[in-house]
């Protein structure tokens, strides 16, 4: 890898980070972006996978606080702008895909 490649790879935006259209204001704290990480099976406990696949708000309100940085509360999730909720749900739904499915999807959109 060349020095230019190294700089470009470190400056690449994290595909799991989303810049909120409507920031979350929590007291004196304002959250403008949220990063999600892939959950493990235990972090999906108590939630139906079909509800998560369907981006059910109640299901997302249980899981997103477990995998978000900064940590969102369930109240934060319920108060998200609908456009922001759908975008975070889209990032989350990517975690439920196998590598083969992701590669196929990327090849179709490339």
UniProtKB/TrEMBL annotation:
Q: Which InterPro entries match?
A: Phage_tail_E/E (IPR019289)
Q: Name one Pfam family in it.
A: Phage_TAC_7
Give the span(s) annotated as Disordered: 1-21
Q: What is this protein called?
A: Phage tail assembly protein
Q: Which organism is it from?
A: Burkholderia multivorans
Kindly list the organism's lineage: Bacteria, Pseudomonadati, Pseudomonadota, Betaproteobacteria, Burkholderiales
